Automatic annotation (TrEMBL):
Record PANTHER family: PROTEIN YCHN
Lineage: Bacteria, Candidatus Roizmaniibacteriota
InterPro entries assigned: DsrEFH-like, Sulphur_relay_DsrE/F-like
The name this protein goes by in its record: Sulfur reduction protein DsrE
Gene Ontology cellular component list: cytosol
Gene3D superfamilies: DsrEFH-like
Highest taxon of source: Bacteria
Pfam families named among the record's database cross-references: DsrE
Organism: Candidatus Roizmanbacteria bacterium RIFCSPHIGHO2_01_FULL_39_8
Length: 107
């Protein structure tokens, strides 16, 4: 299955759960893409106990079946730079992700 997850929040519990679900799906052999939209491009700035988001992201990025993309416009508005844990993409990437996925979830 091709699973798309769209994150729109920087709430640590919400993002932690989204990445945990993504990692579970990867473990079952699925392909997972996560698109960061709006304030979600700041997800890595909020890491509070007991929600270790960075640990989940590190696990997520270890496989070729996982892809993380961040809205470039949302990043520009927040003066953020492209990085491995927040790679710049665009609205075309979001569209492509939606039309090529079997399931689309939003958090």
């Amino acid at each position: 299955m091709k699973l798309a997850i769209i994150l729109t929040s920087k709430n640590p519990e919400i993002n932690w759960n989204a990445f945990r679900l993504a990692n579970l799906a990867l473990g079952k052999g699925d392909e997972v893409r996560i698109f960061l939209l709006g304030e979600a491009v700041e997800y890595y700035k909020v890491n509070q106990e007991p929600f270790n988001i960075q640990e989940q992201v590190d696990i997520f990025l270890q496989t070729e079946k996982a892809k993380l993309i961040a809205c470039g416009t949302c990043m520009d508005m927040r003066h953020q730079k492209n990085s491995k844990t927040c790679p710049t993409g665009g609205i075309q990437d979001l569209y492509s992700l939606i039309v090529t996925s079997d399931k689309v979830l939003t958090f």
